[in-house]
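ESCALATION

Customer reports they have been waiting on this structure for their group meeting. Please prioritize. Original submission:
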Amino acid sequence: MTDDYTASLPRKRMGAAALLCDDAGRVLLVEPTYKDYFEIPGGSVEADESPYAAVVRELKEELALHVQPRRLLVTDWVPPRPGRTEGLMLIFDGGILTPQQTAQIQIPAEELRSWAWCTEQEAAERLSELLARRIAAAMRARAEGTVLYLENGFFVA
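Update from on-call: job pushed to the front of the queue and completed.
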């Protein structure tokens, strides 16, 4: 058989991001120019790119940082909604940035307005509700040394 059956299967949108913290436990958020809320650094996984490679690439593009993320913290399945297909969003543990790494952050002005260190409460005020749930879950997974599976930002298993 010459046809590849897997080529006929549905394809899902995928994103990968990194949870970066400082030594005070604050999370690093970025403010995209094309959205009205903050996010954590990351982005779309490109064709034939692994989620891990995507997050490494995005950290270089968005923050000019060369960080090797650690383990996976969260997988979040997001259902389709008007104007968006369903997707899988992955968050990796980006570790704790040193003051030297933080001083090296450079953001692309055409993509990001700013970045900020935020407590979990400050992050919840700047993120969409979905992203706030996902980031809170990632913080929990890091603290508990576990991996969490979410659907639309809500804990499932």
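Sent to customer with the following note: The domain at 12-155 is CATH 3.90.79.10 (Nucleoside Triphosphate Pyrophosphohydrolase).
Escalation resolved.
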